[in-house]
TrEMBL record:
Protein name, as recorded: Leucine-rich repeat domain-containing protein
Keywords: Leucine-rich repeat, Repeat
Signal peptide residues on this chain, from the entry's feature table: none
Top-level taxon of the source organism: Bacteria
InterPro entries registered for this protein in UniProt: GCX_COOH, Leu-rich_rpt, LRR-bact_E3_ubiq_ligases, LRR_dom_sf
Family under the similarity heading: Belongs to the LRR-containing bacterial E3 ligase family.
Length: 448
């Protein structure tokens, strides 16, 4: 290279061929001066473009033509030399050991620098469209260029966001230290700010389709956009929800708040999780619903189950009965309720979680069923409940007795706790005896 960069006076004569050679040699010389001090970075460049770097770890002219460079997971600590890639549009340097970035090529459109140890970012190129800097140690972000449309900076320590460009459509700032958000762009379609310290949200743009604001300190939610399809607001301090738009067709997750009631549910909603609140009832369930999670509330009755429902998780409530179960239902968790019998199990394959001390028999046995007790341990499938039970004169052991229709008894109940449950009638005939040592409960209750 020394020979290449030493020019004689004879060479510099104004002929076309020699001028062309001179310009080529000057260019090559210029690139020879851009060194790549990090050996791992040099090797990563060499792997991606063997002609872009010399054996002395200095850039060669082809580096100026590279449009994309991926040097992920190469153990790189220093990206010095990246400025020599003067046409670079995409830089991917994920999962390295970077703590800072050098000045970036002005041509850069997309930057992915996730999973490093970055504490700051340099000035961003004026044409940058995509910035992903997730899982670093950033406490602040530089000003954003007006061209930026997508920003993902989740899992950092950012407390304040700069003004957002009007072009932005995607913003993911999960798990930072944000206490507020700036004015949201009117073009924004995706907003995820879960796991921050937000006490309020700004007005939501009418274009917003996805909103996740769980695990904050929110006490209210602003009016929801009419195009919103997915809404997560779990683990906040909410006592009510705003009206839900008809466009909400994917997910509503409002678990772990202080809700005592839910608004009307959109007809197209597929999944709802309203667990860990203070609900006593639920509104009419959408016909499209396939997943219902409502654990740890105070619900004592449920509306009819829609035909497409496949998963019901309603443990830790106060239910006395269930609606008819649809054929699509294959997962049912009803542990720690007041249930003693179930409606017909219509799905041929089911996972059923029960309190084995309360539900001692089933209305029918599906072709494939796995039953779990309160500790979520598989247990033998309970037998089918008898249609009628008749206890004649004599001693009857303390237990729970469940009949699909009627119970008649002239028996003497043994000491302990005995329960009679039937759906039509319970008749205690002359001669029936319950001693002072017996706790006896009689209840006529529908299983549907």
């Amino acid at each position: 290279m020394k020979q290449l960069c030493t020019f004689s006076e004879k060479l510099i004569r104004p002929t076309f061929g020699k001028l062309f050679l001179l310009f080529w040699m000057v260019g090559a010389c210029a690139y020879a001066q851009i060194a790549v001090p990090d050996t791992n970075f040099a090797n990563a460049i060499r792997s991606a473009c063997p002609t872009c770097i010399g054996s002395d770890n200095k850039l060669l002219p082809p580096a100026a033509d590279m449009k994309g460079l991926d040097v992920s997971s190469k153990g790189i600590k220093n990206l010095e030399g990246i400025q020599g890639f003067t046409s670079l549009e995409t830089l991917i340097c994920i999962t390295n050991s970077l703590t800072t970035l050098p000045p970036l090529p002005s041509t850069l459109i997309s930057l992915y620098c996730d999973l490093n140890n970055l504490t700051s970012l340099p000035t961003l190129p004026s044409g940058l469209v995509m910035l992903s800097c997730k899982f670093n140690k950033l406490t602040a972000l530089p000003s954003f260029p007006g061209s930026l449309t997508q920003l993902a900076f989740n899992n950092n320590e950012v407390a304040v966001l700069p003004a957002l460009p009007s072009s932005m459509i995607y913003l993911d700032g999960n798990r930072n230290k944000l206490t507020s958000l700036p004015t949201l762009p009117t073009s924004l379609r995706y907003l995820s700010c879960t796991g921050n310290e937000l006490t309020s949200l700004p007005s939501l743009p009418s274009t917003l389709e996805y909103l996740s604001c769980s695990t904050n300190k929110l006490t209210a939610i602003p009016t929801l956009p009419s195009v919103l399809t997915t809404f997560y607001c779990a683990e906040n301090l909410l006592t009510s929800l705003p009206q839900l738009p008809a466009s909400l067709t994917q997910v509503l997750n409002c678990a772990k708040n202080q809700l005592t009631a839910l608004p009307a549910l959109p007809a197209g909603l597929k999944e709802i999780d309203c667990g860990f609140n203070a609900l006593t009832t639920l509104p009419t369930l959408p016909t499209s619903l396939n997943t219902l999670v409502a654990e740890n509330n105070q619900i004592f009755s449920l509306p009819p189950f829609p035909a497409l429902l496949s998963v019901v998780y309603i443990k830790n409530n106060r239910l006395l009965s269930l609606p008819a179960l649809p054929e699509s239902l294959y997962f049912l968790n009803i542990q720690n309720n007041l249930l003693t019998c179930l409606p017909e199990l219509k799905n041929g394959s089911m996972y059923l979680y029960i309190d084995a001390d309360k539900i001692t028999c089933l209305p029918n046995i599906p072709a494939s069923i796995i039953v779990f007790n309160a500790s979520s341990i598989p247990i033998p499938t309970p037998p089918v409940c008898p249609t009628n039970i008749n206890h004649p004169t004599g001693s009857v052991a303390a237990n729970s007795y469940v009949a699909k229709e009627k119970i008649e008894s002239t028996a003497t109940l043994s000491s302990g706790k005995t329960n009679y449950f039937a759906t039509q009638s319970i008749t205690l005939k002359p001669g029936f005896v319950a001693s002072n040592a017996t706790t006896f409960l009689v209840e006529v209750r529908t299983c549907k």
